[in-house]
Amino acid sequence: MSVPTASSSSAAPPGQPKKAALAAWIGSALEYYDFFIYGSAAALIFPEVFFDESDPATATLLSLATFGVAYAARPVGALFLGHFGDRVGRKKIMVFTLMLMGVSTFLIGCLPTRDQVGTLAPVLLVLCRVLQGISAAGEQASANSMTLEHAPPRRRGFFTSFTLSGTQGGQLLATLVFIPVAALPEEHLMSWGWRVPFWLSVAVAVVGYVIRRTLEETPAFEQQASTEGVAKLPLAVLAREHWADVLRVVAAALIASVSTIFTVWALAYATSDSVGMSRTSMLWVGALANVVALAAIPLWASLSDRIGRRPVFLVGAVGSAVAMFGYLWAISTGSYPLVLVLGIVAFGVVYSAANGVWPAFYGEMFSTRVRLSGMAIGTQIGFAVAGFAVTFAAQIAGPDGADWFAVALFTAALCVPPVIAALTARETHKVPTEHLGERAAATTAHRETVSV
């Protein structure tokens, strides 16, 4: 039976798609400001503040490992937040995750240092980082579900891309805040300067709460709740009807390794003794790349509304594998113009193809009943690997941390599973919202009928 192409009966009222996209953009920007300032601090500040400064290489490795801890916590958070998001709605989860991120980030700015309390300092740091990871586990999945279910059927790629534009905006804001902080005299930077960006999360939490509490629940979720009802156990439905797509999203989500290697490991490598580039100059590379990404992401997403999710995602995945070699090579030369140009191309343009389209690409694999659970669990397992990719890269780079080619090869290898996932996925950009995920459910039901 052919899939109808009429507009959804649960279409959003006029103006709601734009409001949902704007709220998702602002909320994601504010939340990921918190998340990304940790990455900058883990590369530049925390090795000296929280770990043994007598062994810089080990201190850097341990600091980068704490960056990955949040990614390890994400799958656990995804199980709980995905479950409740599919049972009580997208809006409540969006508000909760924002508040949790704001509180945990503010607490990081208040932590005592290793010199003050010894090994308790890194333990407290890890606990706060775990809370950040739990928050991030539900943030993007709930925001993506909200925008996708509010969006016009033929423009879901464009509207859902605002969530990822928001994360890039948050990363840009975090970088811009760290530029003057990193320029402080060493004594002030290591004593109080690094804490200021974390303290600003109080404002983040307040503003984000005001914005997100005014959102309306999505028409798709309300219709699901009023007709068939919400799933009592979304995870059971997910395992029964969408297990293949969950695995596909896990593999595709490994593309996030490109982002973590670019924003964290490459920053640490460029400012290390083997290269010797300044903190401020490298932070500007990230800032300008994110400015370009803010424009590129919605353009790539709009293209996916015309030609499909798969080809655009594949351009980003394959292109990122190649571009990383050029970017890390540029850093190894110490040539700032090369680093700036290739950094913008690699992260601002090429990676944005995959980054801008995945919110729609992944979300369209699932039905309304399990969309938040499916996206949260699938992405967060993949993101967990991406988070620790930074730690693995630090080990692969060798004792002096200078083997950039090995790190580029490692990053390219992590781009292979996303390519395979995209090649085996269904193309869904023309499927009406209310019919998304039906093929997977119908296939499962058919198999169960045959087995009886």
UniProtKB/TrEMBL annotation:
All copies of domain Major facilitator superfamily (MFS) profile, residue ranges: 20-430
InterPro entries named among the record's database cross-references: MFS_dom, MFS_sugar_transport-like, MFS_trans_sf
UniProt keyword terms in alphabetical order: Cell membrane, Membrane, Transmembrane, Transmembrane helix, Transport
Keyword match Transit peptide: no
UniProt entry tagged with the keyword Zinc: no
Membrane-spanning intervals of the chain: 21-46, 58-81, 93-114, 120-137, 158-180, 192-211, 249-270, 282-300, 312-332, 338-362, 374-398, 404-425
Topological type in the membrane: Multi-pass membrane protein
Subcellular location field: Cell membrane
The protein, known as: MFS transporter
